[in-house]
Write a structure and sequence with these properties.
This protein is α+β, with helices and mostly antiparallel strands. The protein contains 5 helices and 9 strands. 34% of the residues lie in helices and 30% in strands. It is globular and about 40 Å long.
């Protein structure tokens, strides 16, 4: 089950529910181009509201079975939607358990929120992995033009002992193969597959 996680005195990670659709749409419409970089599966020429609604429905339905964990970042002071962070199952490598994705809406960027939220999620996942005496490999795939996403992924790898794969990985988005930069982390830290 996906828990609520506090990660700053003024922000909380709250499990995603279908009810946040209006907040998510508002954040998307603030800067659709920036949102598209972080959510490349979205087809901006198609019904964006429907696609986001479907995503929220899928995530909420799978959050109980420990396959997906998605949170929305909530600013506690005003209840504002700040962004999304999640552990999904769109994987490129056979040994991987989750892919990690994050998006912070434009008005909250450049405050280190994605990095802090990621640290909190990774600490939770690492503790859970240690309790279950397990091993987890996490992928972070970032489009090479998403400079903020690349910077965050590099910092995460640096802090958590991950590695950056030198070759680009082709990811199917719509009808095209799009090159992405891949980063890999293993938890608990220090473990080798």
């Amino acid at each position: 089950m996906t828990p609520e996680l506090e990660f700053r005195s003024d922000m909380k990670l709250v499990p995603v529910r279908k009810a946040i659709l209006p907040l998510l749409l508002e954040a998307y419409n603030e800067d659709p181009e920036a949102a598209q970089k972080a959510l490349p599966w979205l087809d901006a020429s198609n019904n964006v509201q429907g696609q986001l609604s479907d995503m929220l429905f899928d995530v909420e339905n799978q959050s109980e079975v420990d396959r997906l964990h998605f949170w929305w970042i909530r600013c506690e002071e005003r209840g504002n939607f700040v962004g999304l962070i999640g552990l999904g199952d769109e994987l490129q490598l056979l040994q991987s358990s989750y892919n990690l994705g994050y998006w912070v809406r434009s008005s909250y960027q450049r405050q280190g929120i994605a990095l802090e939220a990621t640290r909190r999620v990774l600490h939770w996942l690492e503790n859970k992995t240690i309790e279950n005496d397990g091993f987890i490999r996490i992928e972070i795939t970032v489009h090479p033009h998403n400079e903020a996403g690349l910077a965050t992924a590099s910092r995460i790898c640096e802090e958590w002992g991950g590695e950056i794969i030198e070759q680009f990985i082709g990811i199917e988005i719509g009808q095209r193969t799009v090159p992405h930069r891949m980063h890999i982390l293993d938890l608990p830290r220090g473990e080798v597959a």
